[in-house]
Amino acid sequence: MPEHNFLVVEDSPTMRQLISFALKRIPGSKIVEANDGIDALKKLSTQKFDIILTDINMPIMDGLKLVSMVRNDPAHKTIPIIIITTEGAEEDRKRGLALGANAYIPKPIQTADLLTVVNGILGNK
Amino acid sequence: MEKEPAPISKKVEEFLQVFKKGEEFTQELLKENEKLRYRVAQLEEVTKFSGREGTYKMHSMEERIKFLEDENRSLIERYRVVEEENKDFANRYIEVESENNNLANLYVASYQLHSTLDFNESLKIILEIVMNLIGAEEFSIMMLDEKTNELTIVAQEGMGPEARASVKLGEGTIGAAARSGESFYREGDPTDLVGVDYLHPLVVIPLKIKEHVIGVIVIYKLLVQKQEFSNVDYELFSMLAGHAATALFSSKLYSQSERKLTTIQSFLDLLKEK
């Protein structure tokens, strides 16, 4: 069974648990959680991930900054990134995708929709 | 000298030979005739048989066509039934997925609500649930002060300064919902808003322990992408009404008991010193 490593970056424990709960349905999934962008960068430096799922509004370092830093880092720039956020306006979506995110999912999330996006990215790898 | 005519016996013999040949020829003709008649009879028999076989084959083919047509109809019918079953399974799958999503939301919300005995953390978790799982943009949590009968905001998200910090029990939509203990849902499209009206919220959920109201969750505005309330939202509202109330009440009691314990401990330490 192939192993899939996910990094879930969320300041809300409720959302971290809900996203992890959904990702556990993917066979071979291994989930690492981070509280914010800085925490995520620390974890990226020690582990390899197949997909990063990040919120935008977080303390210390927000999700957009994280996307930008990952895309400018030669070691991690190809990791697919999914933004999951309450910012659902079209301009927010465009901004997130322009920074290099692969998908943009507005909250509240439907687990089936999230899994469709994640499986689509895993299938294309 | 004149040639002597052939004797009669010779002529008779010649005639007999001719006659014999004629007889032999007649016999051959008769045999040939017999052969031909036999052949004709054979051909007639074959023709007769072929006709019967053709009719038989035709009949057999017609039966085969009928069988295949029946089989085709049966297969089309079976295909239709399977197609219907597939549609049913697909719909059932969507329902199960939706139910799974709802249960995951409810499980996570309930799990998080009861994961702490810290009052402020409980408030934060309720805010997270209302914002992330329901999709509210502007909302507040108000607690009821039983001495003054006033509902006061203890936590809020996205609200403007014009929002009232407190409401009397029974006053307006919020006060009425708190007094009756019945949830309030404003009629019409929840996204049909020109601006936020803090006097007319979208939703008011009384937080109840049994029939005792300890506060309310008030939602004024939904996130831009949230078009309507779904079934799981109503389930979450119902879950919050009970579980958020218990979580807030128990964490408040725990905080108070912790404070009292610290006071008593300090008092005992003071007595020991004396």
Briefly summarize what is shown.
The complex is a heterodimer of chains A (125) and B (274). Chain A has 125 residues and is an alpha/beta fold. In chain A, 42% of the residues lie in helices and 20% in strands.
Explain what this protein looks like in three dimensions.
- The complex is a heterodimer of chains A (125) and B (274).
- Chain A contains 5 helices and 5 strands; from the N terminus they run βαβαβαβαβα.
- Chain A has 125 residues and is of the alpha/beta class.
- Chain A has a 5-stranded parallel sheet with strand order 2-1-3-4-5, with helices on both faces.
- Chain A is globular and about 35 Å long.
- By secondary structure, chain B is an alpha+beta fold.
- In chain B, β1 and β2 (150-157) form a beta hairpin.
- Chain B contains 4 helices and 6 strands, in the order ααβββαβββα.
- Chain B has a 6-stranded antiparallel sheet with strand order 3-2-1-6-5-4, with helices on both faces.
- Chain B is 64% helix and 15% strand.
- Chain B folds into 2 domains: 16-113; 118-262, GAF domain (Beta-Lactamase), CATH 3.30.450.
- The chains are: A alpha/beta (125), B alpha+beta (274).
- Chains A and B meet through α1 of A and α1 and α2 of B.
